[in-house]
Amino acid sequence: YQKNNQKDEL
Amino acid sequence: MNIFRLSGDLSHLLAILLLLVKIWKTRSCAGISGKSQILFAIVYTTRYLDLFTSFVSVYNSFMKVVFLTASYGTLYLMFFKFKPTYDHNHDSFRILYLIIPSLVLSFIIVHVYTVMEILWTYSIYLEAVAIMPQLFMVSRTGEAETITSHYLFALGSYRALYILNWIYRYYTEDFLDMIVIIAGIVQTILYCDFFYLYITKVLKGKRLSLP
């Protein structure tokens, strides 16, 4: 699964 | 934000600025792959489209704008201002072999089927392999200027530091994104050979030349 829907990395 | 992520970003920033300063100071882009720089411009453009749709922090937006500006600035210096110094004979890697498969893969392995998400995923896959024309160029000419070596080391270190950041985030925030992690590992592995040469040669004051 993944929790990264707000891309807060560059 | 953690120390690994911050170090990664600063390393990335250092790499990009190092390249710009090198080209500007020496008035030459000899030894630099224009094709890798084109790929990086595509990477930043497709990834940072979210500048217009979502806001994370002033830091994030600022860095995105810097990366985009520096990337297009580098292209301008290479293909316009200092074009006569561009060594295109040695920059012969076929970038369509990277552009097309990355695009195909981003339609196959992607978290959500939206235009923004596919473009973001594409940027991740393309970034993983974008340095290949540059590494190919170094292997063809058999050498790299010391400043170019520093540039490559900083650029390679950035994703390696991000891997530490993802491990840290997995334990502290339960954050896990397999797409960036696998692509980041592939990206870092591509630099391993160069890292070895950098540590054994450049750090000992020698010029990076291949045997």
What's the short story on this structure?
Chain A is largely without helices or strands. Chain A has no helix or strand.
- Number of discrete helical segments of chain A: 0
Number of helices of chain B: 8
SS-based class of chain B: mainly alpha
Q: Segments of chain B where pLDDT lies below 50 for 5+ residues?
A: none
Q: Can you count the beta strands of chain A?
A: 0
Q: In angstroms, what separates the terminal alpha carbons of chain A?
A: 21 Å
Our Rg estimate of chain B from Cα atoms comes to 17 Å
- Please give the number of β-strands of chain B: 2
The oligomeric state is heterodimer
Describe the structure in your own words.
- The complex is a heterodimer of chains A (10) and B (211).
- Helix content of chain A is 0%, strand content 0%.
- Chain A is largely without helices or strands.
- Chain A is elongated and about 20 Å long.
- The termini of chain A are far apart.
- With 211 residues, chain B is mostly helical.
- Chain B is globular, with a radius of gyration of 17 Å.
- Chain B has eight helices and two strands.
- The N and C termini of chain B lie far apart (41 Å).
- Chain B has a two-stranded antiparallel ribbon.
- Chain A binds chain B through residues 1-10, and chain B through 5, 9, 12, 50, 54, 56-57, 60, 63-64, 67, 111-112, 120, 162, 165, 173-180.
